């Protein structure tokens, strides 16, 4: 039942229902953080090598953002200060060597300004990733640029385990690194400051970190050097948090620490694990940062498989969920996408289901609000189809980022027009009169009836998002079927993703004739299949550029075709496939009708290269999975999923 507008809801707008009050598909959440790390140190991801021209660097970066959008992500975490250097014209530290090959070398443009602008043009959040204390991946101060602060203040630097670090125990160092990072916060329109797991360095083979003299100078009041070191890091976090919130309250502070705080065998508050303890090894008291609310989100690097004997993924997501409970800190999970299908990894990571199973397990813990994948090159590599499987199983539709603390939803926009043209349906709207609008969400509902607020809590009706610019906005729905009638609505969001009531609805009617829609296996948003389904273009009788195939097996692993049906009624269902004598003689087709799922078998050994009628079935209006091709058959030969056509009768 639709919820009546409240007294404060502007006339003609539709409130957006709380998702908890609506029945939605847990596999397609409307709110979910989806990000990937783009690492610059050692040219891991970007730039791919030093010395590229500015144009080449920019083209590569745009490619990473396009990949993020293709995988339906909504954020990138980009390393902009990998080693006491800068990817912007800093007045405190030199240009990063990973840009030009020479520390201090000007790349000829402002990478930070470019990166933020390009991310926001795609409405991707830009999380600026800083390393607070690493100075160099070597120990020779003379190799640093002449202007480098560590050369001007050699007492700040410590050589340890083959690298140079700023000494976290020196108050002047702590103040300086905060100032260097705040320079970027104040000058650029970033969405978050992000730190990974490097605070004090991980223990090396050459003994402990050599800061005993610093402890003697500054450690009064601490009974152990370990407690003093932890306090140094605590002060960094606490002070940086206060500075960010004072300067730009909408900029989040997020940390992605090592996945284990402490083991229960050491501390009853710890997790049931037996691995390295970040509290003791690198002096990162991450649990305290959460409980004190010094950070806005935490994304522990839970880089182990489900069932790992020392650090079970399932145990760690349970522990971190309990840790953030009762706080305002958002919990994300750092995913070891780099392990999936990689040579030398444990057998579990050779299973395409391992990574997707992590996200399925996350659903049991409502405090987990999303994931960050390490790193971009591994998302692109998609070894053993693990990333494709995650996209299919968990990122089927666009998603809004989780709403943060503070801020307020802006006023609803006014949808001024929705016009069907040759390129689709183009929407135009005006910004609402009140509040601070940072972006918009665009919704499409089938048919021309009234709007239930629960429709706007369903991610299957979310078409996409647009960054706000000026007093107007526009969006073109290129996926609108010519014969379909739709209702369109738009909402506005502030910088922390609080969503306004929906705009007025605009109805676009179908362009004459009987409604009919074709969904190919390459139709964006219209087809899902696990990595167990192969892709082929071998047979010319296919529909479109290729088709999908799989071995029969007694498993529930269907490939699904989804469609938006404008109205309830009877529809003729047809399938297209390329026939081959070696294909399956009884391929099960699952038809998800309004009255339940019906199975129809098709002999795919013959009769291909044309539309074959499965039958006439009743369907409800809306966007949903309509026809599936199942592998569950005792007959031999590949089962094939190519295209379906639904025609309203």
Automatic annotation (TrEMBL):
Keywords: Signal
Regions that span the bilayer: none
Matches recorded under InterPro entries: CBD-like_Golvesin-Xly, Divisome_Glycosyl_Hydrolase, GH, GHL10, Ig-like_fold
Span of domain Glycosyl hydrolase-like: 33-351
Pfam families: GHL10, Golvesin_C
Signal in keyword set: yes
Keyword Signal: yes
Domain Golvesin/Xly CBD-like: 517-648
A GO BP annotation: carbohydrate metabolic process
Superkingdom of this protein's organism: Bacteria
The protein, known as: Uncharacterized protein
Source organism per UniProt: Micromonospora arida
Organismal lineage: Bacteria, Bacillati, Actinomycetota, Actinomycetes, Micromonosporales
């Amino acid at each position: 039942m639709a919820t009546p507008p409240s007294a404060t809801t502007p006339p003609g707008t539709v409130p957006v229902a709380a998702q908890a009050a609506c029945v939605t598909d847990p596999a397609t959440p409307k709110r979910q953080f989806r990000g990937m790390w783009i690492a610059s140190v050692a040219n891991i991801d970007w730039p791919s090598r030093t010395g590229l021209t500015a144009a080449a660097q920019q083209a590569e970066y745009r490619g990473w953002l396009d990949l993020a959008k293709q995988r339906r992500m909504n954020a990138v975490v980009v390393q902009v200060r990998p080693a006491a250097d800068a990817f912007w014209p800093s007045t405190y530290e030199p240009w990063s060597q990973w840009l030009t090959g020479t520390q201090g070398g000007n790349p000829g443009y402002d990478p930070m300004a470019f990166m933020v602008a390009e991310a926001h043009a795609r409405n991707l959040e830009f999380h600026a990733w800083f390393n607070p204390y690493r100075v160099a991946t070597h120990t020779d101060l003379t190799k640093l640029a002449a202007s480098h602060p560590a050369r001007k203040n050699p007492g700040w630097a410590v050589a340890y385990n083959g690298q140079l670090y700023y000494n976290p125990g020196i108050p002047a160092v702590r103040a300086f690194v905060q100032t260097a990072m705040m320079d970027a916060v104040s000058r650029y329109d970033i969405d978050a400051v992000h730190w990974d797991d490097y605070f004090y360095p991980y223990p090396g083979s050459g003994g402990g970190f050599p800061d005993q003299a610093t402890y003697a100078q500054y450690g009064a009041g601490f009974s152990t050097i370990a407690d003093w070191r932890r306090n140094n890091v605590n002060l960094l976090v606490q002070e940086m948090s206060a500075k960010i919130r004072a300067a730009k309250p909408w900029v989040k502070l997020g940390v992605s620490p090592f996945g284990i705080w402490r083991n229960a065998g050491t501390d009853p508050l710890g997790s049931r694990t037996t691995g390295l303890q970040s509290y003791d090894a690198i002096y990162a008291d991450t649990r305290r940062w959460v409980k004190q609310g010094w950070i806005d989100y935490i994304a522990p690097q839970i880089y182990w498989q489900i069932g790992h004997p020392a650090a079970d993924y399932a145990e760690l997501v349970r522990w971190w969920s309990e840790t953030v409970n009762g706080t305002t800190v958002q919990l994300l999970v750092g995913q070891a996408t780099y392990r999936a299908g990689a040579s030398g990894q444990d057998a579990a990571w050779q299973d395409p289901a391992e990574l997707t199973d992590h996200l399925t397990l996350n659903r049991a813990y409502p405090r987990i609000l999303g994931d960050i994948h390490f790193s971009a090159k591994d998302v692109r590599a998609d070894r053993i189809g693990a990333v494709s499987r995650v996209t299919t199983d968990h990122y089927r539709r666009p998603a809004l980022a989780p709403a943060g603390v503070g801020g307020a939803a802006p006023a609803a926009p006014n949808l001024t027009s929705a016009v069907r043209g040759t390129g689709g349906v183009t929407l135009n709207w005006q910004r609402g009169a009140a509040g601070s609008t940072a972006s918009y969400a665009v919704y499409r509902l089938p048919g021309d009836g009234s709007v239930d607020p629960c429709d706007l809590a369903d991610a299957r009706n979310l078409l996409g998002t647009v960054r706000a610019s000026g007093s107007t906005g526009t969006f073109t729905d290129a996926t609108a079927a010519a014969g379909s009638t739709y209702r369109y609505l738009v909402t506005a969001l502030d910088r922390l993703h609080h969503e306004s009531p929906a705009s007025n609805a605009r109805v676009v009617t179908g362009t004459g004739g009987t409604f009919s829609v074709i969904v190919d296996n390459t139709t964006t948003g219209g087809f899902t299949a696990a990595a167990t389904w192969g892709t082929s273009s071998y047979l010319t009788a296919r529909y479109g550029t290729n088709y999908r195939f799989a071995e029969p097996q007694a498993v529930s692993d269907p490939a699904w075709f989804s469609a938006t049906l404008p109205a309830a009624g009877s529809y003729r269902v047809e399938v297209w496939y390329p026939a081959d004598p070696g294909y399956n003689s009884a391929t099960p087709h699952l038809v998800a009708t309004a009255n339940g799922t019906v199975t129809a078998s098709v002999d795919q050994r013959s009769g291909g290269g044309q539309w074959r009628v499965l039958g006439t079935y009743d369907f409800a209006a809306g966007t949903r999975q309509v026809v599936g091709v199942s592998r569950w058959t005792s007959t031999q030969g590949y089962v094939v999923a190519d295209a379906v056509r639904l025609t309203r009768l």
